[in-house]
Amino acid sequence: MRYEPRLRLGADRYPAASVGNDLPIAAERRGQGPLGRELGDEFRINQNLNEVFDEAAAARLRVNSTGLRCLDIIQRLGQVTAGELAREAGLTTGAVTSVVDRLVDLGYAVREADPGDRRKVLISLTPTALEAVYEIWGPETREYIEQFTSVPRAQLEQMIECTREANEIQRRALERIREPG
To answer: 29-41, pLDDT tens digit by residue?
Structure first.
């Protein structure tokens, strides 16, 4: 599909309207042409699609966006303490307690004593949660696996590195906007 640049309304009168386009513009200045802008647009489209999908998934699971984020973190890490979950989710430990209480009430999570340190409590997902998550994300995951099996390893490694770098940029941006000021 040929990329056709779209008119950025308001950027001439309101400089902030063009802020989201800085990355693609910088890429064009480095000689990458419209590909930089197209890549930026695709990132933004993907982010919006993920947000809408996650809203629908949260509704289906009867959790809010914070609960969904915590389900994802617990699934990815296997077992976590409340402190680890709070750090990963960007929440206070008090807020995490409320979220975990809700997940336990829904039958999605359990709290168990850490066998290595009885003072610690580990949070993990139940089979009910794993089944519900698989029902929602299983078909998409299978499609991704099918799609990426034909991608050469070197390209996958490059995609992983680019994604890690994008995640670091996002973490710094989050810290910046959370700072008082």
So the answer is: 565 678 888 888 9
Alpha carbon separation from 116 to 13, 113, 119 (Å, rounded): 61, 9, 9
Residue 71 CB contacts under 8 Å (≥ 6 apart), including other chains: 61, 63, 103, 108, 109, 125, 129, 133
Classify 95 in phi/psi space as left (phi over 0), alpha (psi -120 to 50) or beta: alpha
pLDDT in the model for residue 3: 44
CATH topology of domain 62-126: Arc Repressor Mutant, subunit A (1.10.10)
Note every long-range contact of 144-148, with CB atoms under 8 Å and residues 24 or more positions apart, other chains counting.
none
Q: How far apart are CA 19 and CA 11, in angstroms?
A: 9
Angle at 27 between CA 22 and CA 29, to 5 degrees: 95
Which of the four pLDDT bands, split at 50, 70 and 90, describes residue 27? low
Name the 3-class secondary structure at 117.
Answer: strand
Higher pLDDT, 84 or 13: 84
For residue range 83-125, what is the model confidence (pLDDT) as tens digits? Answer: 999 999 999 999 999 999 999 999 999 999 999 998 999 999 9
**Distance (Å, whole) CA 125 – CA 3:** 43
Q: Which residue do the tokens 């099918």 mark?
A: 146
Cα–Cα distance measured from residue 105 to residue 99, given in angstroms and rounded to the nearest whole number: 10
